[in-house]
Amino acid sequence: MKYHILVFGCQFNKADAEKISQLLLKKGYSQSPTPDGADLVIVLVCSVRQKSVDKVVNKIKNLKLKMKNHNPKLKIIATGCVLDSDKKMFEKLDVEIRKFQDIEKFPPARNASQRTGSRSDAGGPLTGLITIGKGCNNFCSYCVVPYTRGREKYRSQTAIAKEAAGLIKKGVKEITLIAQNVNSYPNFVGLLQKITALNGDFKVKFLTNHPKDFSDKLIAEMAKNPKIIKYVHLPFQTGDNAILKKMNRKYTRQDYLKLIAKIKKAMPAVVITTDIIVGFPGETEKQFQRTVEVMKKVNFKQAFIAKYSPRSGTAAFRLKDTVPLIEKQKREQILLGLIKNE
């Protein structure tokens, strides 16, 4: 029995996809390079923005249409970030919704022997992802993650270190720790110290960080620990305090710039990247220019810029989407131009 995995969205879905792939291989399934040759297609859904959900739905519709005659018995399962309000939509497409832990209970493939390895073992992967926790307690007004992934739940240091040791043994040279707010992990510095104390030639990085939990202790550990990559992904979303408050981000523009100054002082060669939303409800041209000012002051190496789109189920959905799409596109291009002109 063959499977294919379609991944949409963030690093969490990519990490889950790799785990699902390893699980199915061990149960005797084989991997198909395309959906066309698969008996089972698993879709890792991203629900952060409505545009993301629309993209997933269109992909599934096109796949079902294409496979109608070629493979009418194709089974499609959706997992990842799925809002309760979207479940009926997927069910109408004859897509089964499963939580990640339910996929772990998959029966072995029929007429197939158990496998002991995974596709990634043979190639000697250079990088590896470790999910240290899932969920979010912050409830940013534009985000559905607390509703799809639940509240923050973290794995033990022992379990995480054991997984890291396994990756190092396989030859992984760069380990990335991921969580919705990775630096919100209880005693995150202690976790970093435990992992970097493992024997082997490897380095560690982590994402995504929340500015409110980026402590002086963490900065100091990053600066002095040679096994930690000097890279910080630190979303600021907008440079205007009034919009930050509407977003429920729990910090100000001044807080963010002060934190950046500390990081750069401790690590002059640090690489800093960020996330930004343009066109949040009520954002004026003057407020947008404050975002431009932050971009110029920080000099980010890269910025992931999203045009705001209303998302059912979030607090911001109740706000009027006042910024026209053409203006959002214009603001996006202005910010991208600042990165290109470094």
TrEMBL record:
Annotated Gene3D superfamilies: Methylthiotransferase, N-terminal domain, tm_1862 like domain
Iron among keywords: yes
Keywords from the named record: 4Fe-4S, Iron, Iron-sulfur, Metal-binding, S-adenosyl-L-methionine, Transferase
Span of domain MTTase N-terminal: 1-115
Top-level lineage group: Bacteria
Cofactor: [4Fe-4S] cluster
Name of one Pfam family that matches: UPF0004
Matches recorded under PROSITE patterns: MTTASE_N, MTTASE_RADICAL, RADICAL_SAM
EC number: 2.8.4.3
UniProt entry tagged with the keyword RNA-binding: no
A GO CC annotation given for this chain: cytosol
Top enzyme class: transferase
InterPro entries found in the cross-reference section: Elp3/MiaA/NifB-like_rSAM, Methylthiotransferase, Methylthiotransferase_CS, Methylthiotransferase_N, Methylthiotransferase_N_sf, rSAM, rSAM_horseshoe, rSAM_sf
Every Radical SAM core domain range: 122-342
Gene Ontology terms for molecular function: 4 iron, 4 sulfur cluster binding; metal ion binding; tRNA-2-methylthio-N(6)-dimethylallyladenosine(37) synthase activity
Entries under NCBIfam families matching the protein: MiaB/RimO family radical SAM methylthiotransferase
PANTHER family in the cross-refs: CDK5 REGULATORY SUBUNIT-ASSOCIATED PROTEIN 1 (PTHR43020), MITOCHONDRIAL TRNA METHYLTHIOTRANSFERASE CDK5RAP1 (PTHR43020:SF2)
Function: Catalyzes the methylthiolation of N6-(dimethylallyl)adenosine (i(6)A), leading to the formation of 2-methylthio-N6-(dimethylallyl)adenosine (ms(2)i(6)A) at position 37 in tRNAs that read codons beginning with uridine.
Name of the protein in question: tRNA-2-methylthio-N(6)-dimethylallyladenosine synthase
